[in-house]
Design brief:
The chain has about 375 residues and is mainly alpha-helical. It has helices at about 15-35, 55-75, 90-110, 115-120, 125-150, 155-160, 165-175, 180-200, 205-235, 240-260, 270-275, 275-300, 300-325, 330-370, 370-379, and strands spanning about 5, 15. The protein has a two-stranded antiparallel sheet. A hairpin with a 6-residue loop joins strand 1 and strand 2. The chain starts with a strand and ends with a helix.
């Protein structure tokens, strides 16, 4: 018989055996992913179809969506079928702590997964100047975006997240990293219109939760822009696992600040113990997600990754709406569709701009080539 551990304070019973089994499966999956991460990489010219990598797509959607599901389950009130544990900073601290432990284990057991760490490319000065600011932004984005789940529905958050690329672009234009173009501007207006429609159609709209998610998106935009600027100016190239190795302790220290200030109140430690199999599963899923993304991008392009991300969002919206009895209204569905259309047009505009820029650079290079040199090449 499946033993039950009842959480204090009237929380829903936790099926310990089920969660322990999930944790064991996740540990096995992490070992498989570590092994796959050392395998051969697909050629840059080869981009297999989604059906050709269906098992990998299924795993990525399951793990990514599963992390959102489990975190929402932890934060949601007991009356809504959750665990009633809305302590986001504690959960993020726990995630980062396990990430630090696992990345250090990988450093010594599979150093080929961390070439930047193995080659000691990062000095202390370089870490403080180039990595710490990015890690602090990452901590802020993670804490705020997860805190939004306490106040607004999963489906609505996925709809708001559809404007992430547009916010990154707008911030980049403001700081001079990107040049504004009419096509991108029109597509951004379409995305914002869709998000506004989804907000109007949201049955349980919460301005605080909405503000948390938008702020998290702006911080994420700043993080990506700072990261790009640091890489281009200093030539620092961190592989995915090396990046996690350096960012995890930075996020851990940064998250300690709000945690020590008890911004969410006192932690009920008896409840932490009652929920420990769920909390362990959440941290294992989070680490497995990093490895899954690493393996996914070794076998498919970023375009395929983005396409499967949209599929994952749609499945998340549908499944969580049913479980938490939070229906998606017609206005929301239409608004989300408009946002996806705007996102597609935005990506197309960016691709067109990249092609034009490349073509212009080739023309300038050809014009600057001396005539005599050209004739010699032709001969």
């Amino acid at each position: 018989m499946d033993p039950l551990s009842t959480a204090p304070g009237g929380a829903a019973p936790i099926h310990s055996a089920l969660w322990y089994a999930i944790c064991i499966l996740l540990v096995g999956l992490i070992l498989v992913l570590v092994h796959e991460s050392t395998g051969p990489k697909t050629s840059n010219n080869e981009d297999p179809s989604i059906s050709a990598i269906a098992p990998l797509v299924f795993m990525w959607i399951t793990i990514s969506g599963g992390l959102t599901w489990v975190n929402k389950l932890i934060f949601a009130p007991v009356a809504s079928g959750g665990c009633g544990f809305p302590f986001v900073t504690f959960l993020m601290l726990w995630h980062m702590f396990l990430a630090v432990v696992f990345t250090n284990i990988i450093r010594f057991t599979a150093p080929e997964l961390m070439p930047a760490v193995a080659q000691n490319k990062v000095t202390f000065r370089m870490y403080m100047k180039n990595i710490a600011p990015v890690g602090i932004c990452l901590a802020g984005s993670l804490v705020l975006s997860n805190a939004a789940y306490v106040f607004i529905s999963v489906g609505y958050i996925q709809m708001v997240k559809s404007c992430t690329s547009s916010i990154v672009y707008m911030v980049a234009v403001l700081v001079g990293e990107e040049i504004f173009c009419i096509r991108c501007g029109a597509s951004l207006l379409l995305i914002c219109t869709g998000v506004a429609a989804a907000s109007v159609g949201e049955l349980d709209f919460n301005i605080f939760g909405f503000s948390l998610q938008v702020t998290a998106t702006f911080i994420e935009a700043v993080r990506l822009i700072v990261l790009k600027a640091l890489v281009s100016s200093n030539g620092i190239q961190l592989d995915a696992m090396s990046g996690l190795y350096y960012y995890a302790p930075t996020c851990l220290v940064a998250t300690l600040v709000p945690f020590s200030l008890r911004v969410e109140g006192a932690i009920p430690w008896d409840k932490v113990w009652a929920l420990h199999p769920v909390l362990l599963a959440s941290a294992l899923i989070a680490f497995a997600l990093h490895l899954t993304i690493l393996v996914f991008l070794r076998h498919a392009s970023s375009t395929t990754y983005a396409a499967t991300g949209i599929l994952k969002d749609v499945l998340l919206i549908g499944s969580t709406s049913v479980y938490y009895s939070h229906p998606v209204t017609g206005i929301q569905a239409a608004g989300y569709g408009v946002s996806l259309l705007g996102l597609r047009l935005f990506n197309y505009s960016k691709e067109m701009n990249a092609r034009l820029a490349k073509q212009k650079a080739q023309e300038i290079a050809e014009e600057s080539t001396p005539i005599l040199q050209k004739s010699n090449h032709q001969v």
